[in-house]
From TrEMBL:
The keyword Chloroplast does not apply. One of its GO terms (molecular function) is holo-[acyl-carrier-protein] synthase activity. One of its GO terms (cellular component) is cytosol. This is 4'-phosphopantetheinyl transferase domain-containing protein.
Length: 219
């Protein structure tokens, strides 16, 4: 079964009556309430709802009744860590949110997703901490360095969500042979399938990584 990825505005998700906060667990609601900014709270809620919708579409079942949980493999706490759907133990899920946009992915094989809004003037020190030497050279040579960096960043962050690398070992992953221009873009890194695209309407970039080639659906 092909992994499925989705992206939407946070407001779009919350406008859907079937994706209301009534689907969230008490723990999710408590975590949402801790955000100081309402916009951050909205993004958190929307991402946790969209990933349920993504898992439901993957298997063709109603979204109601799906319980999203998290578990940290290091400390065994359930208020952070890798997400999973209690009722669908064979489904792997991933979610991401930031500044008004959210993304989610679901599949029967490992999958990771990341969504980011563009920024200007990314410090070279930041790039050096996450890019390989080849990637850094590609970014410096690109006509739009910030845009090129963003494409690489969502790919790498999705790989972190997948569990293939960590924030401390990102420079060991070299994606410098992959294309940086065009949308959507598909590529391979070893056994991994990479898909990323730029959403011009929302001004965001999305990266999806899985051991099978993913597809994208609209909310």
């Amino acid at each position: 079964m092909t992994p499925l990825a989705m992206m939407a505005d946070s407001a779009e998700v919350l406008a859907r009556p079937d994706l209301g906060e009534h689907l969230l667990t008490p723990l999710e609601l408590a975590r949402a309430a801790r955000f100081r900014l309402e916009s951050s709270r909205t993004d958190f809620v929307a991402a946790h709802l969209l990933v349920r919708e993504c898992a439901a579409r993957l298997l063709g079942r109603p979204v109601a009744g799906l319980t999203l949980l998290q578990r940290c493999p290091d400390c065994a706490r359930d208020d952070h860590g890798k997400p999973y759907v209690a009722e669908l133990p064979d489904v792997r899920v991933s979610l991401s949110h930031g500044r008004g946009v959210v993304a989610a992915a679901a599949g029967l094989h490992p999958v990771g997703v990341d969504v980011e809004q563009p920024t200007r003037g990314t410090a070279i020190e930041v790039m050096e901490r996450v890019l390989s030497a080849g990637e850094l050279r590609r970014v410096r040579e690109h006509a739009e360095p910030d845009r090129a960096f963003l494409r690489l960043w969502v790919r790498k962050e999705a790989m972190v969500k997948l569990g293939r690398t960590t924030l401390d070992t990102l420079t060991e992953v070299d994606l410098s042979e992959l294309e940086l221009d065009g949308s959507p873009l598909r590529g391979r890194y070893g056994d991994l399938h990479l898909l990323d695209w730029e959403d011009e309407r929302r001004g965001a970039a999305v990266g999806v990584v899985s051991t099978q080639a993913p597809q994208v659906e609209q909310l």
